[in-house]
Amino acid sequence: MILFVDSLTVIDFSYLCPRRGAVGESWITDIVLHGDLNAESMVLDFAKVKKQIKQIIDEKLDHKLAIPSALSANTKHTNGRFELDLHIGDSHLAMSAPEQAVCMIEGEEVNEVNTIAYLKSVILPHLPDNVKDLDITLRPEATSGFYYHYSHGLKKHDGNCQRIIHGHRSLIGIKLNDVSMPRLQKQWADKWQDIYLGSEEDLISSAELKHIVAEEGDYAFAYTSSQGYFELAISKSRCDILPCDTTVECIAEYLAGQVKVQHPNDHVQVRAYEGVGKGAIAYA
Fold first, then answer.
1. Residue 130: predicted pLDDT
2. Which of 24, 249, 22, 23 is nearest to 10 (CA)?
3. Does domain 2-169+199-241 sit in CATH 3.30.160.140?
4. Residues whose CB falls within 8 Å of the CB of residue 174, separated by 6 or more in sequence, listed in order
5. What is the pTM of this model?
6. Distances (CA, A) of 222 to 49, 164, 199
7. Is there a contact between 106 and 114 (Cβ–Cβ < 8 Å)?
8. Surface-to-core class of residue 218, CB atoms within 10 Å of its CB (0-12 exposed, 13-18 middle, 19+ buried)
9. DSSP state at residue 190
């Protein structure tokens, strides 16, 4: 017997790519269970599928930085902390964070195939004996609109958004006088492709870093939140600094203000997404 749940959850996370650096991603997750009927004439109660499997995915991958095992030589575990320092092309990235902020994925790179294998390995041991196998599909949102991949960290968030490198694949909508402007949408999607959005108030000098070393041409960030102390050094070419927090509400407001500067006589509407199916709208 086969049981399926489409769109069980959306995994919002970032992964390290050996070509692109830190890439924010949002994957819609579909689940298929293969097994025998249990005493309730079910493969597994839908409520348990939605709660138990989603909880494992949230704990193991969601809002984390996924790192391919091929880059493990550039990483270090010390006293419950995780540190990395690597060069990708002509850019530099170093991070120090509590170990729960990262996830190691077997392989040369993080992709759907390797990530599915990882998720199956951590989910199947928790399923009842009548469930014999598990299929997982990871898919981006189907869209013809413009989108960008971004990473960030929200130090004021009490949940997992505080992790200094996690991210999203996000659509962007911009209107002038209630007319959609694909040119402006593409302009910002291109500008922020594979970007790290940093908050100005989290900037520190390179000399203030405690666990990692910044290179010339890096921004340095650090903050303490409820999960611990986080540090990041990243090439300026991979980063954009916002004069506000990088919540989706603030991103929408910032973009609206930037577009308004370019079009002072127009009514501006920005629809910013945080992953799939959620976001904020701002006007200027």
1. 87
2. 24
3. no
4. 180, 181, 184, 185, 188, 255, 259, 268, 269, 270, 271
5. 0.95
6. 38, 9, 10
7. yes
8. buried
9. H
